[in-house]
Amino acid sequence: MQQTDGDLVKILQAFVDKIPFAESFEMKVQEARKGFVRLAVDPKQALFNHFGTYQAGVYFTAAEIAGGLLCGTFLDLEKHLLITQKSSINFLKATSETLVVTAELSEEVIDCKIIPAITTQRKTTLPVDVFVKMQGGQMVAQCRNDYYLRVGIPKIFIKTHRA
Predict the structure, then answer these.
(1) Cα–Cα distance, 127 to 88 (Å, whole number)
(2) CATH class for the region spanning 5-157
């Protein structure tokens, strides 16, 4: 059965909802398709600094999660380890408006570089540019995240629940 973009949005939203640290951000996946993801963070006092604008860590966290979700548009995040190896962020403007965060990769990069590396070497490093904007489109931050991807999730990363 073919997966629709709407199904992908639901899958990625469920993944975000499983991240305890992200719970207070209430991030919403707005759009997802192979090679593209967009999420939003609505203004909330708990996310603001003493100036009444978003704390810098909100920009960073939203950008880091969006980049990871991008990988989930072409890989099953339940079956692949995804770890941020390196990240850099440029803060451009303070805001208290809704944040719209996007990450994008071309299908050519996905199909000709990432998937073959994962298939043959079972691991790769993927640089992802992420853009944080206000709802009107003005850029407030740019982020570059390098993600380490590998097939399989080591036992150390798998949560076990004991009664």
Answers:
(1) 11
(2) alpha beta
